[in-house]
Amino acid sequence: MQFKEKVQIMDAEKIRRTLTRVSHEIIEKNKGTENLALVGIRRRGVPLAQRLADNIKVIEGKAVDLGILDITLYRDDLSTLAQQPVVHKTEIPFSVEGKKLVLVDDVLFTGRTVRAALDAIIDLGRPASIQLAVLVDRGHRELPIRADYVGKNVPTSSKEVVSVRLQEIDKDEQVIIEEFIE
After folding, report:
1. Helix/strand/coil (H, E, C) string of the chain?
2. pTM (2 decimals)?
3. CATH code, 76
4. Banded model confidence at residue 89, pLDDT cuts 50, 70, 90
């Protein structure tokens, strides 16, 4: 598959401002940071969760629990991914029991990644609540899932891909829409 860059929808400064806004929304909705934890979905949800946690610490003066979730074995398309899928470690160094968890991901599309993340979290325990924060919601849901916190809503066609590039992983900082070339 080949893709061609179509348009940049967020630059580094826009991403920074958006994450600051989302951090405030998370604090407001949860009435502070008590019993709050952020869990980044591997891959790009992890640095986004870290940035949100850093923002929350600056705003509230308190650190929140932070975890990393690998959903590879919970995916409903596992057999189509690879013969031997690469499974990374889930690192949640706290009990999820009774916590107000905020799952963090880069792009919300069909909802299948979030469904897998919900299954993975429930296997770890029973949180008080699970919320979802995404940098970009591009629509095209296949499951009844919605984000509680959205950085930017971006209507897309099925021939487009939203590509989030983050400094920690990609050595670049932007969100672009790419178009599938047939």
Report:
1. CEEEEEEEEECHHHHHHHHHHHHHHHHHHCCCCCCEEEEEECCCHHHHHHHHHHHHHHHHCCCCEEEEECCHHHCCCHHHHCCCCCCCCCECCCCCCCCEEEEEEEEECCCHHHHHHHHHHHHHCCCCEEEEEEEEECCCCCCCCCCCEEEEECCCCCCEEEEEECHHHHCCCEEEEEEEEC
2. 0.92
3. 3.40.50.2020
4. confident
